[in-house]
Amino acid sequence: MFFRAIERAGEFESSDVVRILADWLEERGDGARAEFLRLEMECERTPDWEPVKAGLRRRARELEWAHPTWLAAALPPVLQTAFELKKAQGMFQGLELVGQLGGWENPAEWDLLECGLETLSERMPIRTLALGAVIGQVDLDRLLSWSGWSGLVELEVVGISPRTWIRLAERLRRGLPRLTRLHLGRLNRIGPAGVHELLREAPPQTRGGPPQPSLLSRLRVLNLFGNRLGGAGLTAITHPKGASATVQAESLETLDLGFNNLKPADLRSLWSWEAAPRLRRLSLAQNPLQAEGGSGLLDAVWLEGLVELDLGGTRLPPKTLADLVASPRLKRLKCLRLSNLQLDAAVIEQVLAGIGGDPPPRLDLSSNYLDDDGLERLARWSGLARVVELNLSHNEFSPSGLKALADSPHTERLKVLRIADNRRLVTPRGLQGLVDSPLADRLTRLDVAAAPGMEEELKALLTRATLALRTSSRKDARLDLGTWSDHAGFWEDVDWFAEPAAEEEVDY
């Protein structure tokens, strides 16, 4: 059902969204459909043992039987679309359109979609838009022609073709002056040619006036994950030909270059990139940096300014990785991701020695080969005393290794622990050592994964930890007890591009 998808999408009451759409239907004269939505919402919220639930279900079924065309036509197109609304400062500010928009040939359907968007925008300012559809150029033109997008600050598009991207970039330059966060990841594959659209200057606002800034010059967040940029595409960003002030990345703070098959030779232009003075967060994940790339990174002109660095899956040799994390130029880091680097007990000891006693507060060691020996070495590491968030998901340690970590004298600041997808820990016995330790009382978030059929048993075991999380003074305290399929990896579980707090306000 529509509202169930909404409820799963965000941490807020689905009733808010259903109420908006039911009101809209009622305003358009479809009172029966509005009543049906409200009844379905109440059924979902009412416990099975409440006598009133039977009456709600009966009335909903009567409405459904009285309107057989509903099943054939479903909801109008605007309601067939799944909306994901993000709550920020007490107001819904985001909108996600998920579904196949292609093939909408009836102008009335587009008019209906626009009418629905107008109705929604009257009730909530739309600041973010995610186009989760495989959308063509014609459909994109019609969708973006709506005047309500002018206030967008964040846009995500998935699965567009290079030709559609060129058309989209033109729209962005002309009609979205406030856009500062652009996500073109998830295998859009715009390629090197598409990069030039980021650099192209917008036309003058008045005849004979100066060109307007390019997209790149006003973006704060740019996600190019999985776009097959190659060396040519990256060089086009870092050292554009005929560069002027309007095509420099002077506002860029977050850049995701993950999964672009960037080899050491391709990355040379990145190391010497001087046109991004505000760069603070960088992902090079899943690019084969190897030893040469790691050495080049040490000489990058912007390295000292980073507060977040993702090196997951970069094939860095142990010696190169140890030298890199030991660099005094990385002392400003608040988050370091070292997932999928084949770190075992021996290698992790080298890496921890390189990091020393002043590590980043957030440390990701997921998807490695850390066994009990590796956890014991981690537990003895004095730098652990400064770690606030630790991700050990998808490793190879047993309950013995977890207990060694839980009993470590260096975990007093640890607040967030992720141990999902460690197959030897999904039994009650596997987590007993953690539950019985003082660490469980200090955590504000514990991320584990339950094997199918074992969720309730684990919940019963974790009562003490759950109670500690719920009574914590921190607002974000919670226990995540998902299933194996819910925890594909750290990248999906964490919003890497979440708006960071001002650096001086971060409480570690």
Automatic annotation (TrEMBL):
One of its GO terms (biological process) is nucleocytoplasmic transport. One of its GO terms (cellular component) is perinuclear region of cytoplasm. GO terms for molecular function: GTPase activator activity; small GTPase binding. The keyword Repeat applies. SMART domains: LRR_RI. Keywords: GTPase activation, Leucine-rich repeat, Repeat. InterPro entries: Leu-rich_rpt, LRR_dom_sf, RanGap. This is Repeat-companion domain protein. It comes from Isosphaera pallida (strain ATCC 43644 / DSM 9630 / IS1B).
